C-alpha cells in the first residue's frame, strides 16, 4: 500500500515504494474466514451464542531496516556521507491497523493512514546520520498484540563515512614546495595534447625532470601558458609528479597527480575558467595500496559526471582496479568498484570511455591468459557486463598463436563501439585489426587494418571519419633506431583505408576536423610535437615553449 508523503529536503523521505491496493474499508474480511449469508431456515431457529474468543488486534513491526546499495551513496557539500535507508513496516496481526505515526531518527514524523492485515509499506529515506533509528507508532495510537518490536536502528559503515571525509592526517604543504610555474620562453616537451580549435587547447608537458605541468595554448601550440594547479611536491630531493588529466572544453578541466610511480593520487583538481583558478576535491580514499606501479585514467561526459579509474600492478600479470565516480563536477568522489571487494576486471586496463552519464565501456588485457575483454555499463559504472573477445573469423587461432593487446575503446553511441587489436612477437610477426560492435559488446566484427602494425594510434573525428597512424618494428641496423609509420584515413568507419603519407616517427595523433591535426612522438623518440593543416598529407615540426606571462597563469585557491 502507499499514500501521499510530503517531499521536503533531501535528507528526509524521498519516496514510498509500496502501493495501496485497498482502502481501509476494503480491509474487512482480508485474511479472515469467508462470511456466508444465512439461509431462511436459520431465522426460525434458535442460534447458540458464539464462543468467547480473544479480541483480534493488529501487530505493527519493522520487517526490514537496511541501507540500500552501498555503492550508491553520495557526499553532500559538507563532506558528509548521504545514504538511502529502506524501512519496511508490516502488520502481521489479526486485524487492520488505523492511522499511526512513524518517527524517523527524531528528525521527522510521517503519518501512515492505516495498514490492512498482512500488508506492508516500504519507505525510502535519505540520511546523513551515522546511526539511523525508526520508531513505529511511538504515540501508541494503535492497540497491538505486541509492543516490543516497533523499534529498529541501522549504523552507517565507517568505510562509507571515511569515503566522504578529507584525510585527517594530511600534512599541509608549504608554498615553497608547491609545483612552480615555468619561467617565460623556456622550451618544454608536450606529453599529451587536446585541442578544441586551430589555435586553442590544453596539454600536459614537462622538461624531462619528472614534474608534469598543465598547459594552455592560444596560438596552435607554438607557445604555452603554465596554468598548473598548486599541487604539492612531497619529495623535494627527488621530485616526481605524474599528471592524469581530462579536458572537457576550453574552460573545464580536471587533473590528478601521483607523487611517485606507486603512490596514492590524493585529490582531483578542477578548473572552470581555463586554469585561472583551481578547486580541490575531497581526499580520495583508495583501498588498494602497496602496488609496484599504478596509473590513472579520467573521464567526463559533462561538467558534472565523471569517473576516475586507477589500475594497480603488483608485478607479473597481477592487477587490481578501483573505480571512483563524481556527480558534482569532481568535488567529491565515491568508490563504486574495487577488485579487492569484488573482482570485476581481468588483467590490465587499456582505457575507459563514456558516451553519457549512464553508458560506458572499458577494455583490458590478461597477458598471462592471452585473453582480451570489454566491459559495458548502463548504470554509470555500478555494474558491468564482461565480454571476452574472440579471434577474427579469418584468423581464428590468432589469440592462441601470438601475444595480443587491446587498445583504448571509443564509444560512438550507447551500443556502438570501436577498439584496436594488435598482436606481435619477438620475431616481428604482427597482425592488427579494428573491432566494432553495434550491440554494446554482445558481438564484435573484426576489420583488418591496412598493414600489420606493431602499434596503432587512431582518432575518430566524426561518425565515419577515422585517422590511423600505424608503426612497424624499428629498424635497428644503424647507429640509431629508425621508426617508420604510415598514416591512413577511413571514411567508412574502418571498412576501407586510404594511405596518406609515411613518416619516420610514431606517437599519438589528434585531429579536430578533416584538416587540422597534431602528433606527439613517443618520449624515447624525443617527445616531439608536429602539426598538419592538410589532413595529414604534410607535417611541420613545432618547437613548443612557455609564452610571455600575461597574468593568465595565476594559481587558484
What is the secondary structure topology, with strand pairs?
Layout: E1 13-16, E2 60-67, E3 74-75, E4 81-91, E5 100-104, E6 108-112, E7 120-127, E8 131-136, E9 151-155, H1 158-163, E10 189-195, E11 201-206, E12 213-217, E13 223-226, E14 242-247, E15 253-258, E16 268-271, E17 279-280, E18 293-300, E19 306-313, E20 319-326, E21 334-338, E22 348-354, E23 360-366, E24 371-377, E25 385-388, H2 398-401, E26 404-406, E27 410-411, E28 417-424, E29 430-437, E30 445-448, E31 455-460, E32 466-471, E33 485-490, E34 498-503, E35 507-511, E36 517-521, E37 529-532, E38 540-542, E39 545-546
Parallel strand pairs: 13-39
Antiparallel strand pairs: 1-7, 2-4, 3-4, 4-7, 5-6, 5-8, 8-9, 10-11, 11-12, 12-13, 14-15, 15-16, 16-17, 18-19, 19-20, 20-21, 22-23, 23-24, 24-25, 26-28, 27-28, 28-29, 29-30, 31-32, 32-33, 33-34, 35-36, 36-37, 37-38
Written description of the protein model:
- With 557 residues, this protein is mainly beta.
- It has a domain of 141 residues: Immunoglobulins (Immunoglobulin-like).
- It is 2% helix and 39% strand.
- It contains two helices and 39 strands.
- The strands form nine sheets. Strands 1, 2, 3, 4 and 7 form a five-stranded antiparallel beta sheet that branches. A five-stranded mixed beta sheet has the order 10-11-12-13-39, with no helix packed on it. Strands 26, 27, 28, 29 and 30 form a five-stranded antiparallel beta sheet that branches.
- The N terminus and C terminus are likely disordered.
Count of helices? Answer: 2
> Which architecture of the domain at 13-33 and 44-163 per CATH?
Sandwich
Distance from N terminus to C terminus (CA atoms, Å) equals 52 Å
State the CATH topology of the domain at 13-33 and 44-163: Immunoglobulin-like
Percent of residues in beta strands?
35-45%
Question: Main sheet, how many strands, which sense, barrel?
Answer: 5 strands, antiparallel
The number of distinct β-strands equals: 39
What is the CATH superfamily label of the domain at 13-33 and 44-163?
Answer: Immunoglobulins
Structural class: mainly beta
Specify Rg, calculated over alpha carbons. 31 Å
Percent of residues in helices? under 10%
**Low-confidence parts:** 1-25, 28-53, 166-174, 551-557
Overall mean pLDDT: 80
Amino acid at each position: 500500500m502507499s499514500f501521499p508523503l510530503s517531499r521536503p529536503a533531501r535528507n528526509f523521505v524521498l519516496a514510498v515504494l509500496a502501493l495501496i491496493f485497498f482502502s481501509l474499508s476494503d480491509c474487512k474480511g482480508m485474511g479472515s474466514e469467508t462470511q456466508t449469508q444465512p439461509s431462511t431456515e436459520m431465522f426460525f431457529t434458535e442460534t447458540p451464542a458464539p464462543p468467547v474468543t480473544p479480541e483480534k488486534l493488529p501487530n505493527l513491526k519493522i520487517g526490514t531496516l537496511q541501507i540500500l546499495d552501498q555503492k550508491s551513496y553520495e557526499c553532500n557539500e559538507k563532506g558528509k556521507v548521504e545514504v538511502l535507508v529502506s524501512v519496511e513496516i508490516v502488520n502481521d496481526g489479526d486485524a487492520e491497523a488505523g492511522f499511526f505515526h512513524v518517527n524517523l531518527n527524531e528528525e521527522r514524523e510521517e503519518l501512515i493512514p492505516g495498514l490492512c492485515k498482512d500488508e506492508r509499506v516500504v519507505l525510502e529515506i535519505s540520511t546523513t546520520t551515522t546511526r539511523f533509528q525508526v520508531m513505529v507508532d511511538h504515540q501508541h495510537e494503535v492497540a497491538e498484540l505486541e509492543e516490543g518490536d516497533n523499534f529498529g536502528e541501522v549504523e552507517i559503515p565507517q568505510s562509507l563515512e571515511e569515503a566522504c571525509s578529507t584525510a585527517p592526517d594530511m600534512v599541509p604543504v608549504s608554498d615553497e614546495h608547491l609545483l612552480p610555474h615555468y619561467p617565460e620562453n623556456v622550451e618544454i616537451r608536450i606529453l599529451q595534447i587536446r585541442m578544441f580549435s586551430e589555435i586553442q587547447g590544453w596539454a600536459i608537458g614537462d622538461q624531462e625532470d619528472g614534474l608534469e605541468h598543465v598547459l594552455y595554448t592560444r596560438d596552435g601550440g607554438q607557445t604555452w601558458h603554465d596554468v598548473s594547479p598548486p599541487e604539492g611536491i612531497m619529495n623535494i630531493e627527488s621530485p616526481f609528479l605524474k599528471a592524469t588529466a581530462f579536458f572537457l572544453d576550453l574552460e573545464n578541466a580536471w587533473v590528478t597527480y601521483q607523487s611517485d610511480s606507486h603512490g596514492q593520487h590524493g585529490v582531483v583538481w578542477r578548473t572552470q575558467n581555463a586554469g585561472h583558478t583551481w578547486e580541490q576535491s575531497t581526499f580520495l580514499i583508495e583501498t588498494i595500496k602497496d602496488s609496484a606501479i599504478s596509473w590513472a585514467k579520467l573521464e567526463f561526459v559533462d561538467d558534472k559526471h565523471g569517473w576516475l579509474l586507477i589500475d594497480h600492478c603488483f608485478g607479473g600479470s597481477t592487477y587490481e582496479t578501483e573505480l571512483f565516480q563524481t556527480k558534482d563536477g569532481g568535488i567529491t568522489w565515491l568508490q563504486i568498484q574495487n577488485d579487492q571487494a569484488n573482482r570485476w576486471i581481468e588483467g590490465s586496463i587499456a582505457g575507459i570511455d563514456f558516451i553519457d552519464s549512464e553508458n560506458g565501456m572499458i577494455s583490458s588485457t590478461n597477458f598471462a591468459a592471452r585473453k582480451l575483454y570489454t566491459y559495458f555499463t548502463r548504470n554509470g559504472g555500478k555494474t558491468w557486463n564482461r565480454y571476452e573477445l574472440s579471434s577474427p573469423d579469418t584468423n581464428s587461432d590468432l589469440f592462441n598463436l601470438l601475444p595480443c593487446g587491446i587498445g583504448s575503446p571509443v564509444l560512438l553511441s550507447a551500443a556502438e563501439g570501436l577498439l584496436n587489436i594488435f598482436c606481435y612477437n619477438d620475431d616481428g610477426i604482427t597482425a592488427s585489426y579494428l573491432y566494432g560492435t553495434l550491440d554494446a559488446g554482445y558481438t564484435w566484427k573484426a576489420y583488418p587494418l591496412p598493414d600489420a602494425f606493431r602499434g596503432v594510434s587512431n582518432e575518430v573525428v566524426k561518425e565515419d571519419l577515422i585517422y590511423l597512424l600505424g608503426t612497424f618494428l624499428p629498424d635497428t641496423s644503424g647507429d640509431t633506431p629508425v621508426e617508420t609509420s604510415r598514416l591512413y584515413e577511413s571514411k567508412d568507419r574502418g571498412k576501407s583505408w586510404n594511405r596518406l603519407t609515411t613518416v619516420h616517427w610514431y606517437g599519438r595523433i589528434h585531429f579536430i576536423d578533416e584538416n587540422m591535426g597534431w602528433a606527439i612522438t613517443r618520449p624515447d623518440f624525443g617527445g616531439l610535437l608536429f602539426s598538419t593543416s592538410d589532413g595529414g598529407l604534410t607535417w611541420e615540426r613545432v618547437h613548443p615553449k612557455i609564452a610571455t606571462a600575461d597574468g593568465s597563469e595565476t594559481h587558484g585557491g
